[in-house]
Amino acid sequence: MDEAGSCASGGGFRPGVDSLDEPPNSRIFLVISKYTPESVLRERFSPFGEIQDIWVVRDKHTKESKGIAFVKFARSSQACRAMEEMHGQCLSPNDTKPIKVFIAQSRSSGSHRDVEDEELTRIFVMIPKSYTEEDLREKFKVYGDIEYCSIIKNKVTGESKGLGYVRYLKPSQAAQAIENCDRSFRAILAEPKNKASESSEQDYYSNMRQETLGHEPRVNMFPFVGEQQSEFSSFDKNDNRGQEAISKRLSVVSRVPFTEEQLFSIFDIVPGLEYCEVQRDPYSNYGHGVVQYFNVASAIYAKYKLHGFQYPPGNRIGVSFIDDGSNATDLLRKMATQMVAAQLASMVWNNPSQQQFLQFGGNSGSQLPQIQTDVILPSCKKKAPPETPVKERLFIVFNPHPLPLDVLEDIFCRFGNLIEVYLVSGKNVGYAKYADRISANDAITTLHGKILNGVRLKVMLADSPREESNKRQRTY
Q1: How buried is residue 111: exposed, middle or buried, by Cβ count under 10 Å (0-12/13-18/19+)?
Q2: Model pTM greater than 0.85?
Q3: SS3 of residue 88 by DSSP
Q4: What is the Cα–Cα distance from 464 to 358, expressed in whole angstroms?
Q5: Which DSSP helix (H) or strand (E) runs through 72?
Q6: pLDDT digits (tens, 9 = 90+) for 245-265
Q7: C-alpha to C-alpha distance for 465 and 262, rounded to whole angstroms
Q8: Is residue 369 left, alpha or beta, with left meaning phi > 0 and alpha meaning psi from -120 to 50?
Q9: Tens digits of per-residue pLDDT, 98-150?
Q10: How far apart are CA 386 and CA 76, in angstroms?
Q11: Closest to 370 (Cα-Cα) out of 401, 345, 333
């Protein structure tokens, strides 16, 4: 740097360089007269709280003030209140030019812009799923005037995800809420809306799926063949499941801050990722995030596979479950069912000779295939006759392996007018033929990107037979 800072006399605690932004937003940036002494700054700003240090930026050659200063407070709320009350004020009767006061940008941010009110007035909280917006407002109105409250809900079911936002009128009110509310809320500053709009939450993450790097390693969601004993022996040695809540939501902590794109790319390695959110902790420069999966099996596997994962190299991330009040016994039962379904499907795919036995449950041909999914499926409908003209074909991609044919038929016939569904030999893809375009579109809307029996589906319109005749093998 080409400037030096100096501390006003008076002793007291002086933070080191690594502690300048702890807690975040506890430093203010001042534009002042070049002739303003440090003693005046301390006198005028000390009523707002404990001052840990004052820096006046000086020219390194002449040692003259550049008319810029920083004041470090012990708490974020103190810095915010100082900004609110002192911005535009004159420090002394002889001053003709009012000072400017802003919250200083974090030294690690790589940006020199001022922190805007949008970044300081909206907080993100974890709440019981039973909370209404009125309950949320009632809990947090004691800290200041609230502009609005909102609860993040599942767009399909309308149920609360146990996450919410509270927007205050003043930054100091938001800081007071973070500092003084019950720690169970895990209140932290929310990312600005222009980074991740609440109203386009799912579109935002869907777009990121397309933008993540193509060379990322793929992880099998259920790698229990040959790996089951080692995976769960370490699981039992390192952790006590009886003392830890198990849920579909995970808390992620890192010594190095991360972006939502980075968090998403890490945890999307495990199939079933539904939602992720990065938040800033006002008490440290650590990275904090929340990750939620569609099913508990994915969450458990992600927790024990990615806890301690180094990203970036040399920095280990910590992953733990967030207690959302779910019944752990019921969740584990569902997880076991999904594991068995996935292993059976894998066994059938690897050994087609067993498919007929498993498909019809031995000698009993009346047993329907079992479907494990969070997707709300319509009831079964009759297939269209084989000679019916094809109005629409769908292309299906399976990850990590195809589903058995009887399961596929049971799933895709529920939308009506299904003529045929079949797999491409040796590949993780298949096709479905429909006699009605509306039925085909309903199948895409309901099934695309969803997980059924531990397998993620991508369902889209297929190319016309003429376009693909030279590209794909004939199916069996």
Answers
A1: exposed
A2: no
A3: coil
A4: 34
A5: strand 65-73
A6: 678 888 898 888 888 888 888
A7: 39
A8: beta
A9: 999 988 876 555 444 445 566 789 999 999 999 999 999 999 999 999 999 99
A10: 70
A11: 345
